[in-house]
Amino acid sequence: WKRGQFFQTTANSHRADMLFSTAALLSSGLLLSPARSPAAVAPRARAPTLSIAVFGASGGTGSEAVLQALERGEDVSCLVRDASKLKAPRTAAGFSEGSPFASDKLSVTTGSVTNKADVDAVFASGGVTGVVVALGGKTSDVGPTMLQDGTANIVAACKANGVKRISVVTTIGAGDSMDQAPWAFRLLMMTVMSSIMSDKNAQEAVITSAGADLEYCIVRPGGLKSDPPTGVVTAGKDQDAGAITRADVAAFCLDAVVEPDFQFLRQAVSISSNMGSGFKSVLADKTKSRMASK
């Protein structure tokens, strides 16, 4: 053979060997197709993070609302008179009972709910999507009109910032629910509690008048307890009052501002959790599941 013929034959042989080897690898599955670009894989859709504003956050029900909102993964902003009193009400979700909340998803503003500028500061980020109002305190400490004045500021801020959802904790006996309160409690409301009841009635009137175009829920619990959550809440316009844990009240209030199909919007309802675990709860299924694991 000539020299050129040798190199051509050798090259043809090498190409044949390569084709044979490639075919063998393909048939054995060892030669994989090129990996897809990560950009070609659609990312999994995530639920948008909500931002909940809590007023009265250092109180028993308000601190539960803060804890549970953080547990749900939401951003939380709140207004308190004394930031040192904002503490976890129980050990849950990585927080320890009696210890300050430590979370980068929590924003705290110090001030008074009766000061419009302080209330507006809570909405300053522009991201608030729902509001929980759990105001309280002794009349001698907060004044005889704190509830109505503070709620008026909150309603005005909601309107100014396009926030529609708001839940407001008052009490059984307020508004048109006097007949649903136990007789002994009615006696107290007409005597030693007359001042605070007057403020609560005026607070509800603010919601149903100035806040009438909001998607509100007025929440009227019976006797409040500091027991662990039960995950059972019954609610209704004409339901008799009953005992309920603050944790269950907070869960109901959060459902009112985050659940798209919440069934008690633009209503004032009495709530209770003393019907036993077999009674159908009005809490959202995911809320019940979360609280039942406590």
Describe the structure.
The protein is of the alpha/beta class and about 290 residues long. Helices cover about 35% and strands about 15% of the residues. It contains nine helices and ten strands. The strands form two sheets. Strands 3-2-1-4-5-6-10-8 form an eight-stranded mixed beta sheet, with helices on both faces. The chain has a two-stranded parallel sheet with strand order 7-9. α2 links the parallel β1 and β2. The termini are far apart. The N terminus is likely disordered.
Search tags:
294 residues; alpha/beta; 8-stranded mixed β-sheet; two-stranded parallel sheet; 9 helices
Helix and strand arrangement:
Blueprint lengths: L2 H26 L22 E5 L4 H12 L3 E6 L25 E5 L5 H7 L7 E4 L5 H4 L3 H15 L4 E5 L13 H7 L4 H16 L5 E7 L2 E2 L8 E3 L7 E2 H13 L8 E6 L12 H8 L2
Parallel strand pairs: 1-2, 1-4, 2-3, 4-5, 5-6, 6-10, 7-9
Antiparallel strand pairs: 8-10
Helix pairs in contact: 2-8, 5-7
**Number of contiguous helices:** 9
Estimate percent helicity. Answer: 25-40%
Overall average pLDDT:
82
Q: What order do the helices and strands follow?
A: HEHEEHEHHEHHEEEEHEH
Shape: globular
Number of strands: 10
**Strand percent estimate:** 15-25%
Class based on secondary structure composition and strand pairing: alpha/beta
Radius of gyration: 30 Å
Widest β-sheet, arrangement of strands: 3-2-1-4-5-6-10-8
Low-confidence stretches: 1-46
Largest sheet: 8 strands, mixed
- Cα-to-Cα separation, first versus last residue: 88 Å
